[in-house]
TrEMBL record:
SUPFAM superfamilies noted in UniProt: Mitochondrial cytochrome c oxidase subunit VIa
BP GO annotations: mitochondrial electron transport, cytochrome c to oxygen
Keyword terms of this UniProt record: Membrane, Mitochondrion, Mitochondrion inner membrane, Transit peptide
Primary residence: mitochondrion
Compartmental location: Mitochondrion inner membrane
Organism: Meloidogyne enterolobii
The name this protein goes by in its record: Uncharacterized protein
UniProt cross-references to InterPro entries, sorted A to Z: Cyt_c_oxidase_su6a, Cyt_c_oxidase_su6a_sf
Coiled-coil ranges per UniProt: none
CC annotations in GO: mitochondrial inner membrane
Length: 149
């Protein structure tokens, strides 16, 4: 039977036994009294700081390697994928027909005008693909313009 499979009781409570074991392992005890106590504490404090400083260059070097080995290739791959998708979108726009403008009364209701421009166009307005309510498309796509877009 394993040590961990048996319940441990200390004064009738398993929780008290666990609490007792946790406290005994966690607490670092120092000898009390005398001039050596203060000296020991200062040496431990400076020793712990020096250990952290010794590990810092190794940790920084590790994250630098992670950046150059993992992140840079993934950024290049995502840029390549995005550019290929952009070329497909341009090819798709060449074959696309501009939709007819039908002024439905329930579309593009403006309770308040936009705070920029004339107040009727959204912030990312495209005169070829977005129509303006009451006006329609500002620019019609011709065959020459489809190749440029």
């Amino acid at each position: 039977m394993s040590v961990f499979s048996r319940p441990i009781f200390c004064n009738g409570s398993p929780y008290r036994a666990l609490n007792f074991a946790y406290k005994r392992l966690d607490v670092v005890r120092h000898s009390s009294g005398g001039p050596h106590f203060v000296k020991h504490d200062v040496e431990n404090y400076s020793h712990n700081l020096k250990i952290g400083l010794k590990k810092a260059p190794k940790i920084a070097d590790f994250w630098k390697k992670v950046f150059f080995i993992v992140m840079v290739p993934s950024m290049i791959a995502s840029a390549y994928y995005s550019y290929q998708h952009y070329l497909e979108e341009i090819e798709h726009l060449k074959h696309r027909k501009q939709e007819d403008y039908i002024p439905y009364p329930y579309l593009a209701k403006r309770a308040h005008p936009f705070p920029w421009g004339d107040g009727n166009k959204s912030f990312f307005h495209n005169p070829y693909t977005n129509w303006v309510p009451g006006v329609g498309y500002e620019k019609l796509m011709s065959e020459e313009e489809k190749g440029k877009k």
